[in-house]
UniProtKB/TrEMBL annotation, chain A:
This is Vacuolar protein sorting 33B. It comes from Jaculus jaculus. GO terms for cellular component: clathrin-coated vesicle; early endosome membrane; Golgi apparatus; HOPS complex; late endosome; lysosome; perinuclear region of cytoplasm; platelet alpha granule. It holds the Pfam family Sec1. SUPFAM superfamilies: Sec1/munc18-like (SM) proteins (SSF56815). Keywords: Protein transport, Transport. GO terms for molecular function: protein-containing complex binding.
Automatic annotation (TrEMBL), chain B:
Residues 176-277, 311-418 form the Vps16 C-terminal domain. It comes from Jaculus jaculus (Lesser Egyptian jerboa). Residues 72-81 have a biased composition (Polar residues). It is found in: Cytoplasmic vesicle; Early endosome; Late endosome. Its main location: cytoplasm. InterPro entries: Spe-39, Vps16_C. It holds the Pfam family Vps16_C. This is Spermatogenesis-defective protein 39 homolog. One of its GO terms (cellular component) is late endosome. Residues 72-94, 123-142 are annotated as: Disordered.
């Protein structure tokens, strides 16, 4: 139980270097504004900043007071103001208001704007328009790779998803290319490169251009990481929209893991204070359960508690200090988990109703899950629980297959009535991004679906068949899932305690498409034989391989794979690939523009700001 | 896959732009760098790594290394000796204090001009030998015409590359439509959205909107960038013009409608929504927009006085279940138990009242529990659950002792009642009630 790493697993490169680099660069930038200054930080940058520096470091570099960039007048009395922001228009307007107010008041101060990870011309244009270009100095803090864990690097750019996949804005591609360039400078060249997706290809091309332009010192270096795989989020929306059932994914869905840590409110900690817990490989208990299917976690934890109890009993003879140590370290963590779990128990029940989205598409298993699920999209005023949070309800029906127009309209109407008519903008966005498709008339059930629907001997069978047909029509996804065997055949129960494939991250019902693609390509070391899949993904032009004959690469490095998710990845995908790594003796390193899940994807589509 | 240097060379050699083949120059420059490094005496003021920064032109085209700049530079106290790598990295900074120090006669254009092959090139030290160590008024002696020379002569590829690197770079020399479009295409082929937007900002400023729209219509990537840019800076007028030009009527309508989100005042919002009603939305959205308007209109009329949810329900054709769920949760939050009672009470034609819940009473109970209704209230509704097993489960779950006990009695299930006895508090009224039942001779227990 709890997956240990294989003994022969390759060592991971040391990514803490990235933190030091970012910190040093920030310090350097702060020193560019000598003397005491107040620092205004954008809310979204606070957590990442917390992970690499702390207040005392800032204080050491003459930062006096810290403010949050928000829509309030600044009360700072400092003579020097420094802004640490994402390159966003609204930040520019905020700064402009502040500077112009000072000007009106006849006050002169020094202003410095530090853009992270880079500045955009549109921002400068606003500064110019507002008449403060030249009054403020601008700098860039190229902090685009935050190691959240030993094997997880995040760019912490959730807006990447909306900007690129909804708006078609390629502004972050350079940021990605720069980040990859930095990685190859630090960890050597990547002898084997693969990718799929339009954005992946563009990022790759720009990255290679950067490498060509600068005679990068990495060229002669020994590669530390043997493979890199770039993948666009829109290759696989389905996986990202599924509710998660591996422990870490579940915690993310329920509590939102933010920058590698989670805030437990008073209702979880059962005290007045909320508690911030860092979730990573350093937390022993957590790292043992993070990749587990949640159904195993209860048992595992109580077993663990019993073991501890036994240990505890045995150690009666410990002196006070040892005992204290023991209690404070081992038990504390455990208690937290327990508390966390007890709270989650009720939530789980509620969520498991629509846990497994996928079986509905391929195959019906006689589980309540799928049946429950199937009722939802079709519910026709039946059992519709409008207390669903905004984010979950759409996830149910924004399937790649498309809904029949009648269902689509009725659901949309109910949704708008429940959440506000302005969400028709959300619907329009979902369509534009390809997250929501309405099916064309005239589609019929496939043989497989008819067969499956016959298996259902429930009295609701008729209804299910209807819903089923409305869900699973006209989808490339279906063909892909067949081609790649995403819905594994299971004889008898799928033993979640002993996972046999990556499908365990979705209760044995579905292998994440994204991970399967990666697995297949790595096996072949190319896209050969996957032509049909590539065609179905509409990616004939955007699937690429670039293999350099590299004798310098050690066999160890060739088992390290950097997977780059453009547009975000989920903890389920991470767990699935960690599993694959253990099976095959690889080790995966993840680079994502941000951690995502169904709720975040949906929110990114909303025009209505909560 | 990559555009190789060869490609670029071919482009430049075949291009009608009489460019000064940059790649060659690059080589030349790198040689320059070499020799530069050799000239130790120049270290102080020669920027070790970067020749590009010799001339600075602000993004709008003004040369930065000018007098006013120099004055600031002299006045400024900021460090002139520590020129670390880091500083170079942040060279796109507009802080004047950080600009590398130019030297008087040392201009790139002088290297380029009239020079053909690297062979004929003199060493840098020659070119610079007459340079005074530090001169902060470098532009004074230079003829004005030279500015154009060096600031405008970046080739299209180089301009795009400089933009990508965040370096200052004038776009003013791109005056012909063809030049502008080539620059745009170069930016698009480089994939960097920031550069595409930069070029678009320039095109928006220097082209009439008809021409701009016409050219972008056939350049979808750039078009998407312009649309996003206009959305972001809130240039609603131009955005709507653009959609109108492109004949994207639905997007036009949605974009217009979107604006209401920025209007706080309810009366103004309503008036605004009224203007949305006739717009070319899709058929289904038309109805939603109409609803939205009617809703706001009503909200304003109501203004704190009594509003009839039933009426709203009728107007907006809200299905029974949805209505009940909403009303139930809302009333429960206000702890208005009587209203809830009324919600489920129906009268038949004889005047008898009956309790009916379109969503099923088991769900009513769940919702009430979620809103922490007291046991007495819960009990009332648990009792209304038809299915006995469900009722028993719910009653046990929510500790509605009376319901459990009564149900067991009705089921004549002595065993279950006995089992339940252990779950109630010792000496409580419930325990007493169970004991009375268990000892009653009137009931014929089934077990």
């Amino acid at each position: 139980m709890a997956f240990p790493h294989r003994l022969d697993a390759p060592e991971l490169p040391d990514f803490s270097m990235l933190k030091r680099l970012a910190r040093d660069q920030l310090i350097y930038l702060l020193e560019q504004l000598p003397g005491r200054k107040d620092l205004f930080i954008e809310a979204d940058l606070m957590s990442p900043l917390d992970r690499i520096a702390n207040v005392s470091i800032l204080k050491q570099h003459e930062v006096d007071k810290l403010y949050k960039v928000e829509n309030k007048p600044a009360l700072s009395s400092s003579e020097q103001l420094c802004f640490l922001v994402r390159p966003r228009i609204k930040n520019m307007r905020y700064i402009a208001n502040l500077v112009n107010a000072d000007k009106t008041a006849g006050r002169t101060r020094k202003y410095k704007v530090i853009f992270s990870p880079q500045k955009f011309y549109a921002c400068e244009m606003v500064l110019e328009e507002e008449g403060i270009y030249g009054d403020v100095s601008c700098d860039e803090w190229a902090f685009s790779l935050l190691p959240l864990d030993v094997d997880l690097l995040s760019m912490e750019l959730p807006e990447f998803f909306r900007d690129y996949f909804l708006e078609g804005d390629q502004r972050w591609i350079n940021t990605v290319a720069q980040a990859l360039h930095l990685l190859s400078t630090l960890y050597g060249p990547f002898p084997n490169c693969y990718g799929i997706g339009r954005c992946a290809k563009m990022s790759y091309e720009l990255w290679k251009k950067l490498e060509d332009e600068e005679d990068s010192e990495s060229k002669g270096r020994r590669p530390e990481i043997g493979h890199i795989f770039l993948l666009d989020r829109d290759m696989d929306f389905v996986t990202a929209l599924c509710s998660q059932v591996v422990y870490e994914g579940l915690v993310d869905d329920t509590f939102r893991i933010k920058c590698g840590s989670v805030d437990f409110g008073p209702e979880v900690t059962s005290s007045d204070k909320s508690l911030k817990v860092l979730l990573n490989a350093e937390d022993k208990v957590f790292s043992e359960i993070r990749n587990e299917h949640f159904s195993n976690v209860f048992g595992f934890l109580s077993q663990k508690a019993r073991n501890l109890q036994a240990q505890y009993d045995r150690r009666r003879g410990m002196d006070i200090k040892q005992m204290k140590n023991f209690v404070s370290q081992e038990l504390k963590g455990l208690k937290q988990e327990h508390r966390l779990l007890s709270l989650r128990r009720c939530k789980l029940k509620y969520k498991s109703q629509f846990t497994v989205l996928i079986p509905a598409l391929g195959r019906l298993r006689s589980e309540n899950h799928s049946r429950h699920y199937l009722k939802k999209p079709k519910n026709k005023n039946k059992n519709r629980d409008i207390s669903w949070p905004l984010s979950y309800a759409p996830a149910l029906f924004f399937l790649p297959s498309g809904l029949i127009p009648k269902d689509y309209r009725s659901l949309k109407t109910q949704y708008l009535q429940s959440y506000g008519p302005e969400h028709l903008l959300t619907f329009s966005n979902l369509r534009r991004a390809g997250l929501l498709t309405e099916q064309a008339p005239g589609d019929t059930l496939t043989a497989m679906e008819s067969k499956v629907s016959k298996l259902v001997t429930d009295k609701a069978a008729g209804k299910i068949t209807d819903a089923f047909s409305s869900l699973a029509k006209r989808s490339n996804f279906r063909a892909i899932s067949k081609k790649l065997n995403l819905i594994p055949r299971v004889d008898g129960e799928y033993d979640l305690k002993v996972p046999r494939d990556m499908a365990y991250v979705f209760s044995g019902a579905y292998v994440p498409l994204s991970c399967r693609i990666i697995e297949q390509v790595l096996e072949r070391r190319s896209w050969q034989g996957l032509d049909e899949v590539v065609r179905l993904l509409n990616c004939i032009e955007f699937a690429f391989t670039d293999i350099t004959k590299e004798d310098k690469a050690s066999s160890e490095s060739l088992r390290l794979i950097l997977v780059v998710f453009l547009g975000g990845c989920t903890f389920s995908e991470i767990s699935a690939l960690r599993f694959l790594g253990r099976e095959k003796g690889y080790r995966f390193i993840f680079l994502t523009t941000a951690i995502t899940n169904s709720a975040r994807l949906m929110e990114a589509m909303s025009e209505v700001k909560a | 896959m990559n555009r190789t240097k060869g490609d670029e060379e071919e482009y430049w050699n075949s291009s009608k732009f009489k460019a000064f083949t940059f790649d060659d120059e690059d080589d030349e420059l790198s040689q320059l760098k070499e020799s530069k490094r050799a000239v130790n005496s120049l270290r102080d003021f020669v920027d070790d790594d970067d020749d590009d920064d010799l001339e600075r032109v602000s993004w709008t085209g003004e040369p930065v290394g000018s007098i006013s700049w120099s004055i600031k530079e002299t006045a400024g106290s900021s460090g002139s000796t520590h020129e670390g790598r880091e500083q170079l990295k942040s060279r796109n900074s507009f802080s004047y204090a950080q600009l590398p120090k130019p030297t008087s006669t040392y201009s790139l254009s002088s290297f380029f001009k009239g020079r053909t092959r690297p062979g004929s090139f003199q060493s840098l030290s020659d070119a610079l030998s007459d340079t005074p160590a530090k001169s902060y008024a470098p532009e004074l002696g230079r003829p004005k015409g030279e500015y154009r020379d060096y600031s405008n002569d970046w080739s299209i590829a180089d301009t795009a590359r400089r933009l990508r690197k965040g370096k200052v770079c004038s776009l003013e020399r791109f005056r012909s439509l063809q030049d502008k479009l080539q620059l745009l295409e170069e930016a698009v082929s480089m994939h960097d959205g920031n550069v595409i937007t930069a070029v678009l900002i320039f095109l928006k400023r220097t082209l009439s909107k008809e021409i701009l729209f016409r050219e972008l219509e056939v350049r979808q990537v750039a078009l998407r960038h312009l649309i996003h840019f206009l959305k972001e800076i809130g240039d609603q007028k131009l955005l709507l013009d653009l959609f109108r030009f492109l004949d994207r009527t639905e997007e036009l309508a949605l974009s217009h409608y979107r604006e209401h989100l920025n209007i706080q005042d309810p009366e103004k919002r309503k008036e605004f929504l009224k203007t949305c009603i006739g717009l070319p939305f899709s058929a289904e959205d038309c109805a939603h927009i109409q609803d939205h308007y009617t809703l706001l209109e009503r909200q304003i009329i109501i203004e704190g006085t009594f509003s009839s949810p039933v009426n709203l329900k009728k107007t907006f054709k809200i299905p029974d279940k949805q209505y009940v769920l909403t009303a139930l949760a809302a009333r429960a939050k206000l702890r208005a138990w009587q209203d809830i009672d009324a919600l489920f009470t129906t009268k038949n034609w004889l005047g008898y009242t009956k309790k009916r819940a379109p969503i099923g009473f088991h769900r009513v109970v769940e919702i009430l529990h979620k809103n922490s209704a007291p046991v007495q209230i819960l009990q009332e509704y648990v009792n209304l659950v038809e299915d006995v097993d469900t009722k028993l489960n719910l009653a046990t779950k929510f500790k509605c002792h009376d319901v459990v006990i009564d149900t067991c009695r009705d089921l004549k299930d002595r065993q279950q009642l006995l089992a339940y006895r252990s779950k109630v508090d010792k000496g409580s009224a419930e325990e007493e009630k169970i004991d009375t039942l268990l000892s009653s001779s009137q009931i014929r227990w089934k077990n």
